[in-house]
Design brief:
The complex is a heterodimer.
Chain A: H1 2-22, H2 28-48, E1 71-78, E2 83-89, H3 94-113, H4 121-140, H5 144-153, H6 155-165, H7 170-199, H8 204-207, H9 215-232, H10 241-248, H11 251-276, H12 278-305, H13 309-330, H14 333-364, H15 375-378, H16 380-393, H17 400-415, H18 417-445, H19 452-455, H20 464-482, H21 485-488, H22 492-500
Antiparallel strand pairs in A: 1-2
Helix pairs in contact in A: 1-2, 1-4, 2-3, 2-4, 3-4, 3-11, 3-14, 3-20, 4-5, 4-6, 4-11, 5-7, 6-7, 7-9, 7-10, 9-11, 9-12, 10-13, 11-12, 11-13, 11-14, 12-13, 12-18, 13-14, 13-17, 13-18, 14-16, 14-17, 14-20, 16-18, 17-18, 17-20
Chain B: H1 2-22, H2 30-61, E1 71-80, E2 83-91, H3 93-116, H4 123-142, H5 146-164, H6 173-202, H7 207-212, H8 217-234, H9 243-246, H10 252-261, H11 264-273, H12 275-278, H13 282-304, H14 309-329, H15 333-361, H16 377-391, H17 397-412, H18 421-450, H19 481-496, H20 504-510, H21 522-541, H22 554-559, H23 564-613, H24 617-641
Antiparallel strand pairs in B: 1-2
Helix pairs in contact in B: 1-2, 1-4, 2-3, 2-4, 3-4, 3-10, 3-15, 3-19, 4-5, 5-6, 6-8, 8-11, 8-13, 10-15, 11-14, 11-15, 13-14, 13-18, 14-15, 14-17, 14-18, 15-16, 15-17, 15-19, 16-18, 16-19, 17-18, 18-21
The chains are: A mainly alpha, B mainly alpha.
């Protein structure tokens, strides 16, 4: 039953993508509706995965392997090379799987109402479903080679989305995105084969805790993994593909890109990097921590000076992912749990922010902060939602963003010693800078007298589809903030087992 | 059971109704919308008030019902790697008194705002934000967990931001709102780190366990000084006080809310709540004492030279909070809390009365007021009571609480307490000087506003934060009933709350000592008479002139708050901005430049190779043959050598 469910989670969007792409051009709108139905079905299936949990997730013991999926499917795929089609879900991956299902659904629904200029709507919807297959596969894969394949599946559809439906400078941005992340993929491939050759298997459950890998092999593997995932996450200074890609991508592309695509990097770092090469992780942790904090500071300082709405929000991801990476780098249970909830919170909140930025840019035809202003005078609902998203993003306690950022700092202090204490202090200062640039953004966009562009804003009201696409994110930002257990309920044992390998 | 249900209701009701209020349709929906918004806002404060009164009865009348009179419950919220975060309510009678003050002021502000913002198009979100603000403060007061407290603490910061920036017609409002949020947020960096250090050592954020945990003295001092940074931000203590005078851009009822019962009181309350830890760290108390003494004098002196009536009151808040932190620093949390309660009453009264004045004369500027006593008798008498309490005139409330602070400071100069003796001396002397200065500016405010000749109305009357300029009133008059009654009702506690020190139940809840009117009250009363007398004497010697003129060259320094805004701008704001510009240039030029450069040079290299390969037939043929020849020679040499 569980294995059927696991296959179905991947098969439904894949079939959906094929069906939607094959529908004739005159059925463009029905095709988009069909895509939404398929995405909804996939989302329901991701929710159903929780029912498979049963009692299996209690059985953690310190000596046990760190991955104990509550639903699992293991089929021999290329027996001669020891490569298996091995899928599974546990507490670490499950929140991200649901988030992927939800964001794809919301983006497909949004595409029904609004197709960005550049190409046909049904192709865009089909690409969104292909993206979903790749992302879900990455989060589900329990075999390194399979993980790599799904990791790569995502690349070209995303390239097509940016290059096909993006802004004026889309081709250059898409090229930069695909080349930069391909560079990361090459390193990931090298890392995967380093591990597979050294250990003789690609099964992540067998490899968990660094079993079967010598110290040097772990160092090499982790270095390769870390750089590969750092490009995806992105970690400063390997982040420069991100602002261009986001600025040019269509709204739905930005939402998927920031919401779940970046999480493949941080998830990979936890599951593959720390999971397979824990000694390497411990060895590289200080460097990772320093770069993460540098990302927080640089990201927020750059945001203080940016003048374009979407670019600013894109850059803010650098700082937020810095907090997530700092949590991972501490290698404490607290820090990694903070990273997990930070991942999900960033997906929800930045998704909402990109939806808002897209809606404002679509109406005002500019994202220049200097020509926006006084939004609350003409479009109070939109200004209110933008304010909510910004306040959630700057980490207001009680909303989702807080837990990840605050507990990355706590984890860093828990780690102790001069280096980690300093990192905690600098990261906390970065939190204040985050507040500063979001306040600047709100002051420019929502406060003051209405600028000429805003005063003549077409459709200041929100459409029904916009409400439908955004309200789940608003509710989730509040719900995760009030009940963090929604994300973290099943994580403490797997994470304890993960860090247990370090002791 | 009582704690679970009713404890949760205290902050829960205003927070929930506040969130519900935000969902009301925006814009002017007519009377129906305004009524719904007002109902939600007033209901939130009123229900919370009723529940607090009930809990207070439970805690004081039937103290045996709950352990040690503390009503509490605690549930696990989330476990972060063995770090236990709980969700709980914990309030002794003292906390409930603070909650009572919060709900009373919030209720007064909600009712008052109905009339004060009667033609504001964005009244609905305003009322909802006031509810959220109240709920957040109640969360700080009643939380049994440090992290839950932090939630209320930060939500309050956001609400203050939203409310200070409420007024659409004030160009300075957005900047003031951002400043309030960012200055307090800078302090909160320390607060978060302090909480993190305390929590990591104790393994939990639950307050009872944190308070009883044994910390090493360096850890404790570091954590407490970091927490003091947050306290300085929220409670407007030097050097993070700069946001408060600018926050006057908010509507006047918001000033009453921020200054009396929420926000600035939160910092003092948190030190009170964590006081068992502070008694173990003389260094942290010394830092607090020095900050308190500086703030107390700085605020009082700056208040002497303000022309804007709200700014004068704002600086007086800075100074009065200095009394509270001073009391904490000399080891008397009871005196601090007592002064917090009386201050909540008389400062709310003063701001709401000032709002009535501003509403009547359509200006904030005291130089354009005068002679209002005859037109606005209710407002005049209320303000007189409030200012008397502020100055510490017996038998008004402020006299008793300030007396308590002074006695505590004098007592601490004899040593024996946790506070270093030199700190006690500094606090005591500053507090005594503060008495005279407070009396001076309170008298000036009263004389300039309500006495003397009425100044002629002119069209260029706009000045200061004109948040009440809806229409020009024909003649100044007392405000409508919805604004008048909150003022009148607040005048009662402002006058008599001090006498509560004679009630044994109140005293034991605060752990306050019984007032003993001995020689110790002579010195403050002499200083008070000196201050008030000087102000009156300069004023009557030259009628119509500002007593502040007597300050001479000091006047602009005081009026500008010792130019600390400019210092902050030079030392923090501009360097950060410059650094941000530099980092952006480096990030886009160097980091991204390297990436782009790699791309460009690869393309160029490719083009170069392509050019090299794009050869005409003769040259290509020559190249092929040369290659073949070279390979042949190499093969021959290689083969020969085998």
């Amino acid at each position: 039953m569980n294995d059927v469910l696991l296959v179905a989670v991947l098969a439904v969007p894949a079939v959906g993508a094929a069906v939607v792409a094959l529908l004739p051009a005159r059925l463009d709108r029905p095709a988009r509706v069909a895509a939404t139905v398929f995405a909804a079905a996939a989302f329901v299936l991701t929710l159903l995965l929780a029912t498979a949990r049963g009692s299996g997730w209690f059985g953690y013991a310190p000596a046990a392997p760190s991955i104990r999926p509550w639903a699992e499917l293991n089929v021999a795929w290329v027996p001669t090379l020891n490569i298996d089609f091995h899928l599974g879900v546990d507490g670490v991956s499950y929140p991200l799987i649901v988030l992927t299902g939800l964001l794809t659904l919301l983006c497909c629904a949004y595409t029904v109402a609004k197709v960005p200029d550049g190409g046909s709507g049904r192709t865009l919807a089909a690409l969104l479903l292909v993206l979903e297959v790749g992302i879900l596969g990455t989060f589900l894969a329990l075999d390194l080679v399979l993980f790599f394949i799904f990791f790569e599946v995502v690349l070209l559809p995303m390239y097509a989305v940016i290059a096909g439906w993006g802004g004026p400078d889309r081709r250059r941005a898409a090229r930069k995105f695909v080349l930069y992340t391909l560079f990361g993929s090459v390193l990931l491939l090298l890392g995967v084969f380093t591990v597979v050759v050294a250990a003789g298997t690609g099964d992540m459950m067998a490899l968990a805790g660094g079993l079967g890998l010598s110290r040097n092999a772990q160092y090499a593997a982790f270095a390769l993994f870390a750089v590969a995932f750092a490009v995806k996450a992105p970690l400063w200074p390997l982040h420069t593909w991100l602002p261009d890609a986001h600025t040019e991508a269509p709204t739905v592309g930005s939402v998927i890109l920031a919401g779940v695509l970046l999480k493949m990097g941080t998830y990979g770092l936890i599951r593959v990097g720390v999971g397979v090469a824990p000694l390497g992780a411990a060895w590289a942790a200080p460097v990772l921590g320093i770069l993460a904090v540098a990302a927080i500071i640089v990201g927020s300082l750059v945001c203080l000076r940016l003048t374009e709405l979407k670019r600013l929000i894109a850059y803010s991801s650098v700082g937020h992912m810095g907090f997530v990476l700092l949590g991972i780098a501490t290698l404490t249970v607290t820090g990694i749990q903070a990273a997990l909830i930070g991942n999900v919170a960033h997906g929800v909140i930045t998704g909402l922010l990109f939806f808002m930025a897209g809606a404002i840019k679509d109406r005002a035809h500019t994202g220049d902060l200097a020509s926006l202003g006084g939004l609350r005078e003409t479009a109070p609902r939109m200004a209110g939602l933008l304010g909510f998203a910004a306040i959630a993003s700057l980490g207001l306690p009680g909303l989702a963003g807080f837990w990840g950022e605050a507990f990355a700092v706590v984890g860093s202090i828990q780690r102790g010693g001069p280096l980690w204490t300093t990192l905690a202090v600098v990261a906390a200062v970065g939190g204040a800078l985050t507040g500063a640039y979001f306040m600047r953004l709100l002051r420019r966009v929502t406060h003051g007298p209405a600028s000429p562009v805003v005063a003549k804003l077409p459709h200041p009201q929100l459409s029904g589809m916009e409400w439908a696409a955004w309200s789940p994110l608003v509710l989730l930002a509040l719900a995760i903030g009030l009940v963090p257990a929604l994300v973290l309920a099943a994580t403490s044992d797997p994470v304890a087992a993960l860090t247990g390998a370090l002791r | 059971m009582i704690a679970e249900v009713f404890g949760t209701l205290v902050p829960g009701v205003p927070l929930t109704l506040g969130l519900a209020g935000l969902l009301l349709p925006p814009g002017d929906g007519g009377r129906g919308l305004r009524r719904a918004a007002a109902a939600l806002g007033i209901a939130g404060a009123a229900i919370s008030f009723a529940v607090t009164v009930f809990l207070l009865l439970v805690a004081t009348v039937f103290p045996g019902h709950e352990a040690h009179g503390v009503i509490e419950f605690s549930k696990r919220w989330i476990d972060f790697g063995g770090l236990d975060v709980t969700f709980g309510f914990s309030a002794a009678a003292a906390a409930l008194y603070v909650a009572l003050a919060v709900t009373v002021v919030a209720l007064a502000v909600q009712v008052y705002s109905v009339a004060y913002l009667h033609d504001d198009l964005r009244y609905a979100p305003y009322a909802a934000q006031v509810s959220l603000f109240t709920g957040a403060m109640l969360l700080v007061v009643t939380s049994g967990d440090l992290l839950l407290l932090l939630v209320g603490w930060e939500v309050m910061g956001v609400c203050s931001y939203l409310l200070i920036g409420h007024d659409r017609r004030l160009p300075e409002a957005p900047a003031a709102a951002v400043k309030a949020f960012l200055v307090t947020r800078v302090g909160d960096v320390g607060f978060l780190l302090g909480v993190a250090i305390l929590a990591v050592s104790a393994g939990t954020t639950r307050l009872t366990e944190v308070l009883s945990h044994h910390y090493s003295s360096t850890t404790l001092t570091a954590a407490l000084i970091l927490i003091l940074a947050g306290v300085a931000g929220k409670s407007a203590q030097f050097p993070l006080h700069t946001w408060l005078p600018d926050a006057m851009a908010g509507p006047t009822p918001i000033s009453a809310l921020i200054h009396a019962a929420t926000m600035v009181a939160a910092g003092v309350y948190v030190v009170f709540r964590l006081f068992p830890l502070f008694t173990r760290s003389p260094a942290a108390l010394a830092v607090l004492g020095v900050i308190a003494a500086i703030t107390l004098l700085l605020g009082a002196l700056a208040a002497t030279a303000q022309d804007d009536i709200k700014r004068a009151l704002a600086w007086s808040t800075v100074s009065q909070i200095g009394y509270m932190t001073g009391a904490l620093a000399v080891g008397s949390p009871a005196a601090a809390l007592f002064h917090l309660l009386t201050h909540a009453a008389f400062k709310a009264l003063l701001f709401l009365a000032a709002g009535a004045v501003i509403h009547a004369v359509a200006t904030n500027s005291m130089s354009r007021m005068g002679g209002l006593r005859e037109h606005m008798p209710v407002t005049f008498w209320s303000t007189a009571i409030g200012l008397g309490a502020l100055a510490g005139l017996p038998p008004l409330s402020g006299f008793w609480s300030k007396e308590n602070v002074l006695v505590a400071a004098a007592h601490a100069t004899e040593g024996g307490g946790p506070t270093p003796i030199w700190v006690a001396w500094i606090v005591w002397i500053a507090a005594l000087i503060g008495v005279a200065v407070t009396a001076w500016y309170a008298t000036r405010l009263l004389l300039r506003t309500f006495f003397g000749a009425a100044r002629a109305a002119a069209d260029d009357w706009r000045g200061g934060f004109d948040d009440a300029l809806y229409q020009r009133p024909a003649a100044p008059h007392d405000p409508p009933a919805l604004m008048r009654w909150p003022v009148v009702l607040l005048a009662i506690p402002s006058a008599v709350l001090g006498l509560a020190a004679y009630l044994p139940g109140f005293r034991s809840a605060l752990e306050l000592e019984e007032p003993h009117l001995g020689v110790s009250i002579v010195l403050p009363i002499v200083l008070l008479l000196l201050g008030a007398g000087t102000a009156w004497w300069t004023w009557q010697a030259a009628p119509g002139t500002d007593p502040a003129a007597a300050l001479g060259p000091l006047r602009p320094i005081f009026a500008n708050g010792f130019y600390l805004d400019a210092v902050q701008d030079r030392l923090i704001v501009r360097p950060v901005r410059a650094l941000a510009g530099l980092v952006r240039t480096i990030d886009e030029g160097v980091v991204d430049g390297a990436v782009e450069g790699a791309g460009v040079s690869t393309t160029r290299l490719g083009a170069l190779l392509a050019t090299a390969h794009r050869a005409a037939l003769p040259r290509a043929a020559v190249a092929v043959f040369t290659g073949a020849l070279l390979l042949g020679v190499a093969a021959a040499i290689y083969g020969a050598s085998l």
